[in-house]
Amino acid sequence: MKVLIVGSGGREHAIAWKIAQNKKVEKIYCAPGNAGIEEFAECVPIGAMEFDKLAAFAKEHEIDLTVIGMDDPLVGGIVDVFEAQGLRVFGPRRNAAILEGSKAFSKDLMKKYHIPTAAYENFDDSEKALEYLETAKFPIVLKADGLALGKGVLICQTLEEAKAGVKSIMLDKQFGASGNRMVIEEFMTGREVSVLSFVDGKTIKTMTSAQDHKRAGDGDTGLNTGGMGTFSPSPFYTKEVDEFCEKYIYQPTVDAMAAEGREFKGIIFFGLMLTEDGPKVLEYNARFGDPETQVVLPRMKTDLVEVFEACIDGTLDQIDLEFEDNAAVCVVLASDGYPVKYEKGYVISGFENFKDKDGYYVFHAGTKKTEKGIVTNGGRVLGVTAKGADLKKARANAYDAVNWISFENKYYRHDIGKAIDEA
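That's the Phosphoribosylamine--glycine ligase sequence above. Prediction below.
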């Protein structure tokens, strides 16, 4: 079996690592890939948005399965392009990927089908948005409608801050065309939890829970990022929470998409807030989370390729999805200055420390192979993941492993998973 993965981050490295464990898979390609993915796959210099080139490559190399890791190509319709050419591909079609591609669409879907979420209003006129703020309660949340690399959400404490936020999103186009429309919603308080799920159009099977740390600085300070670290499972995601979400959020979302003529096959990522009034949906994503994947897949016992195929074939109900009874923590090693301005090209050392170390992993995100060796090539450089019998042990192991890697301007948060100590 030959597999093509589309993407170049830590998430795609984790997917490649997991796929490589399937004995039927004889060859993995990744476009465009990164220095770490090369251990498992042949990296191909085709961009994730070059749909026709990717489809032509898949045909020429007789690829049996293509896995789309990133949001942009999914929202752009890469699955439709592949399917039109008779190629087997894992991920939602364009009309289903809108679940992530438009926050206004997903909020309206939740309202229509009574799926618990924060109260909100949609705006495509900045003047009307500014008028609405005059009567709003603070703090309040502003969201660019489209994709914004996980950074298009502003939490505003005051009216002045919110007005400045509307200006930056809708007028200054801080997030480009993603800010042509925006959602203004009530600020919810509680614990955040991420739950990824596999979906085959009708059946949904959830993975183990996780929790992301979005802010750049310790103590959840600083700017929003693509994610500075994760832990799994969340001690706050109880059996009662799971049962509530299954009944009122997970299956109703799949059914709602089907009822709208937008059959969803692939990954639905549920960003949840555990409020005093029960769990509510913060956001949906239409693909694996990054860096959530780096703690979820190492704990997954079930073969990933079999699950992908079941989602495509509509036979997910026949899969027994199993996870290890342990924990994992991922600490992102970033370039100092991320997410604003940072230097690239620093040599990374210490990868050999992970060889033959069971339960320790280093997933590459922004790296590149050069004559000098592997160098930094992005804001988020590596994800250091470790497992442990419980969350405290996994956290200690992950922070030990962080010290095994060295590069100039290495930056990371010191409190990933610290919430576990309060559970």
